[in-house]
Amino acid sequence: MRHEDIVTYSRNVFLPVSNICRNRCAYCGFRGRPNNGGWLLTTSEVLSMAWVGKLCGCTEALITTGERPDFFLSVKERLREWGFRDFTHYVEHLCKSLLRLDMLPHVNLGVLSKHELRRLKRWCASMGLMLECATPLPAHAHSPGKTPAFRLATIEAAGELRIPFTTGILVGVGESERDRMFSLHLIRELHDRYGHIQEVIVQPFEPKPNTPMHAWKPPAWRTVLRTVRAAARILPEVPIQFPPNLLHLYGFFERRVRELLRAGVRDFGGISPITPDFVNPRAPWPSAEQLRAAILRAGFQPRERLPVYPCYVERRWMSAEVKRIVDRISDEAGYRN
């Protein structure tokens, strides 16, 4: 089997630890505020979801949150009542607990300092932060964490710490094609420097009700394919990922999978058999069987991976705590056994 014919995916359980966020992006339907649709899951709630995921064959515990929920005093006070000095400390605790379930955490908390990344590294198989766009956009006017320099600094700090890292761009939120190319080239520069970018996501915008951008349209399919081709050309050593549940925007699932693979996609990210995509709740996951069948019919070979990509399994970019689980559930090539 040729390496270029392999198309990967992972099975995960989506753990939305908190939707409370300091940012107010014009397209986001996930964000809540304290006492206004916001939540902060308890340890028992998170581990209950993770346990069901484990029983369903998931290896990845995807921790997604709003950015800096402890920016709000009420959240900070609740965390202190639970015995945690800040939100990052709480997520550390959750990751340790997930490892005890033999689940591998992949953490996406928004902009983090190098110190925070270092604290989390020991307990995570991988981490992530979408760059989204490397130029300022009106959609981010009320979102301090979407300042491009801050996001690039987090991605660079992850490289300095040798953290297998996921990033990507958001297509269709007011950026130009030149903005997209600029963003991809900056990601390429960081990967050339540190070698830590394990995948780049090309994610189309999906309009959400009750948001300022609810009346916007998703990007045209030809724009998506053109962006995927550019990403594969600019980052030839990095797998390009497309979220398969967002294909509901374009219909014709198998045909779209085939077109994406021909354009250069080589990963379809995490799909969950039990939890929805809480960020895009109207976009149901395909089943692993449906996705594998579409990949095979397009002439490619599907392989299930862990949240840490095989090349980083081989390089052992992980702590002893993470390695213990990875060694047990990966094959000789670093894929899920």
- CATH level 1 name: Alpha Beta
What form results from the Cα inertia axes? globular
Helix/strand class: alpha/beta
Which architecture name does CATH use?
Alpha-Beta Barrel
Low-confidence spans: none
CATH homologous superfamily classification: Aldolase class I
> Using DSSP, what is the number of strands?
9
CATH-derived topology: TIM Barrel
Supply Rg.
19 Å
How is the largest sheet built, in terms of strand order?
A: 1-2-3-4-5-6-7-8
Average pLDDT, rounded to a whole number, is 97
Q: How would you spell out the order of helices and strands? A: EHEHHEHEHEHEHEHEHEHH
Description:
With 337 residues, this protein is an alpha/beta fold. It has one domain: Aldolase class I (TIM Barrel, Alpha-Beta Barrel). It is 38% helix and 16% strand. It has helices at 43-55, 73-82, 87-100, 114-121, 148-160, 177-194, 221-234, 253-263, 288-297, 310-315, 320-329, and strands spanning 6-18, 60-65, 104-108, 126-128, 165-171, 197-204, 240-241, 265-271, 301-304. Strands 1-2-3-4-5-6-7-8 form an eight-stranded parallel β-barrel, surrounded by seven helices. Helix 8 packs across helix 9. The longest helix is centred in the middle third of the chain and has 18 residues, at 177-194. The two termini are 17 Å apart. The mean pLDDT is 97.
Secondary structure blueprint with pairings:
Layout: E1 6-18, H1 43-55, E2 60-65, H2 73-82, H3 87-100, E3 104-108, H4 114-121, E4 126-128, H5 148-160, E5 165-171, H6 177-194, E6 197-204, H7 221-234, E7 240-241, H8 253-263, E8 265-271, H9 288-297, E9 301-304, H10 310-315, H11 320-329
Parallel strand pairs: 1-2, 1-8, 1-9, 2-3, 3-4, 4-5, 5-6, 6-7, 7-8
Helix pairs in contact: 5-6, 6-7, 8-9
